[in-house]
Amino acid sequence: MLAKSIAVSLALAQFASAAEYWESFKSQVNPKNISIPSIPQTTSYDEVTQCTYYEASNFQFVESEWPTPWETATSNGMNKSAEFKALYNSINWGNMPNISARTMGADGAIDMSGYDESNDPDCWWSATTCTVPKHKDVNPDIYTCPEPETWGLTYDDGPNCSHNAFYDFLEEQKLKATMFYIGSNVVDWPVGAQRGVKDGHHIADHTWSHQMMTTLSNEEVLAELYYTQKAIKMVTGVTPRHWRPAFGDVDDRVRWIATQLNLTTVLWNLDTDDWAAGASEPVSQVQGNYEDFIKMGSNGTFATSGNIVLTHEIDNMTMQMAIDYLPQIKKNYKNVLDVATCMNITTPYMENSVKFAPFGKTSTTSSVVTAAGSATSASASSSDSAQTANKESSASKVSATSALALALIVAIFA
Ligand SMILES: *[C@@H]1O[C@H](CO)[C@@H](O)[C@H](O)[C@H]1NC(C)=O
Ligand SMILES: *[C@@H]1O[C@H](CO)[C@@H](O)[C@H](O)[C@H]1NC(C)=O
Ligand SMILES: *[C@@H]1O[C@H](CO)[C@@H](O)[C@H](O)[C@H]1NC(C)=O
Ligand SMILES: *[C@@H]1O[C@H](CO)[C@@H](O)[C@H](O)[C@H]1NC(C)=O
Ligand SMILES: *[C@@H]1O[C@H](CO)[C@@H](O)[C@H](O)[C@H]1NC(C)=O
Ligand SMILES: *[C@@H]1O[C@H](CO)[C@@H](O)[C@H](O)[C@H]1NC(C)=O
Ligand SMILES: *[C@@H]1O[C@H](CO)[C@@H](O)[C@H](O)[C@H]1NC(C)=O
Ligand SMILES: *[C@@H]1O[C@H](CO)[C@@H](O)[C@H](O)[C@H]1NC(C)=O
Ligand SMILES: [Zn+2]
């Protein structure tokens, strides 16, 4: 372990820039040849069966090598690891926009008092839905698909067990989506993440523990992104170039830190509120949102450009709504596809060997140029309960605290 850390830090020390961090992740998975094990967890539609714990053959979760799932990614001493310190020290923090971390109010919402919303100097999305950075050297956000009548398909908060029916549906319909995966979920349900890559979805980073990023310290923001990049790479063999902040909470400080990891922020311009359906919003209201957005595909709203729609793969409610509405979405829009393809990004991962087809080169979806592995369906381990929060989704989760025993840690984000 010590020897390994030293090797990693030496390797990092040779890098010209922080953005090459991903080259030190030694994954056992070839993203072009993923085999999903044909076990009940990956073939059943029964939730209990799907969520029965098992281990992936090519990814062993060693607790001491990762932040504690569903805790801030600096937990478990992970801000002191050689690899993280080398990364941190390779960044020129003096160039960071001079913006302080925000604070949470007693009511569990972010405190925006004192922020100059009319000038919005920090392009703080939570305050103003700003998507065009004000500071320099910050990657600009992606928040809409440029092509007319195009629906940018995105699902947040995966992977998880119990998602076989949903992934099977997308596969049958030849639909590809951008999947924003939570690092804690990736280590808990590795085969779910592997299926996302195998099926040709565009995999992106959705932080380690799904917190309000603008409230975290520089070190915490870096760790939330870095350990999720590492989890996705170790489990699936690819390292994302895109990320989405939980609840959309991003400002130019957080964007700048993401930029150091060569990550681009992806937001949205239509929000279904699907995570709230049946909880803080009536199901009928969310159905109304879907129906309006579907209408917009053929009534001229998107005659000159498209959208990116915020939806979730959290639970049966959100996934079944997607299944129910996708046939109408396909009828009313010319293109329904993942963000990489709609942006004509053919190399959405650091590994340029994994290529997506250019926009327009497949009918309505992208296609990853990969060799197929075996079997279909996926997912893994345990279960938990989800809670809702602010603007976007929320999630809560279980962590496998040892290879054999599962400890349930249900975190509720407000
Ligand atoms: C960052 O990503 C861009 C493409 O998105 C690539 O051209 C560039 O080489 C990357 N930088 C580093 C240092 O890896
Ligand atoms: C793909 O993986 C299978 C088993 O996982 C292996 O037998 C096969 O040789 C691999 N193919 C390539 C091209 O790597
Ligand atoms: C590591 O992170 C923890 C929790 O965020 C913090 O209390 C501690 O000061 C950090 N350690 C170092 C060396 O920065
Ligand atoms: C950063 O901004 C604070 C005020 O918010 C100011 O006091 C401080 O001097 C600034 N630091 C630099 C390096 O500009
Ligand atoms: C298209 O439909 C949406 C949703 O019903 C509506 O808000 C919008 O005004 C309509 N636009 C036009 C040009 O009819
Ligand atoms: C949701 O639950 C119903 C009833 O158990 C089931 O028939 C359906 O397949 C589930 N949908 C998804 C997407 O899992
Ligand atoms: C997409 O990018 C390719 C180059 O990768 C270019 O040839 C093509 O014209 C682009 N298509 C669109 C629709 O922008
Ligand atoms: C994962 O799936 C289980 C079972 O369907 C569900 O209870 C839980 O809320 C999901 N967890 C997350 C974090 O989405
Ligand atoms: Zn989320």
From TrEMBL:
Recorded catalytic reaction(s): these are: [(1->4)-N-acetyl-beta-D-glucosaminyl](n) + n H2O = chitosan + n acetate
Its main localization is: membrane
Q: What is its EC number?
A: 3.5.1.41
Membrane topology type: Lipid-anchor; GPI-anchor
Coiled-coil boundaries: none
Gene3D superfamilies in alphabetical order: Glycoside hydrolase/deacetylase
The residue range of the signal peptide is: 1-18
Q: What is this protein called?
A: chitin deacetylase
Query: What is the protein's species of origin?
Result: Circinella minor
